[in-house]
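tool=predict chain=A
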Amino acid sequence: MRERIIDGLPDDYQRLLQNYAKDVKSAYGERLEGLIIYGSAVRGEFLPGRSNLNMLLLFTGYDAALLKAYAPIHKRWSKEQVVVPLFLTEQELLLSSSIFPLEFLEIQEHHRVLGGRDPFVGFHVQTGRLKDQVVQGLTGHILRVRQRFAEGGGSNDAVTILLPLSITSTIPLLRGLQRIAGRAVLSQSDAVIADVAAYLKIDLQGFHDALMLKRGQITPGPGEIPRLFDRYLQAAGSLAEAVATW
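tool=predict ok
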């Protein structure tokens, strides 16, 4: 096997990324300025068979033909957990990062270059909107959880799908709280939950339960799933209440 791309990632995924990068470079040639992977695979929390592989493609410009050229790549690699990438120019990267500072801080801090150049070298994310984005995201979190629960009819199967998805989108917001509070920004999700719980003096056990469910570390029975969801609701409600005072 060729050199490792990401330390800690299983060998079969190292090969997968090498072959994916080869396909992308073949499809776009010199039009491709940068190919970046970010997220759990880089942060050391990738779960084979559960986590997605997140990509960012940097171009000098794009049109319908360029976007359409990705279709056969998606057809091949979507079954391997590679989601459709972000398609950006450098100018759009600058603009987008000022509008969505939390997302781009996350990418900047945990990414690897699979091809081309690294647009995040010397890059500065404008954080003027960071607090508003985090507070809005955490306040809206509990509303979305209630909606999705009702949409799924409250079934146990729906809950076991909902909670891993929900905690996945919530962890970056918790790291956003750490940033706003001037605390160390932790990479491991369980440590993030524990740190925010201690800082705000609230019980976030429901978040920890959802994280263990996502990782496959617990397999709650039919009678426990409703109680697990209630603990998650309690944690989300306590967090929303604490954040509302900011």
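The mean pLDDT is 95. The first strand starts at residue 32 and ends at 38.
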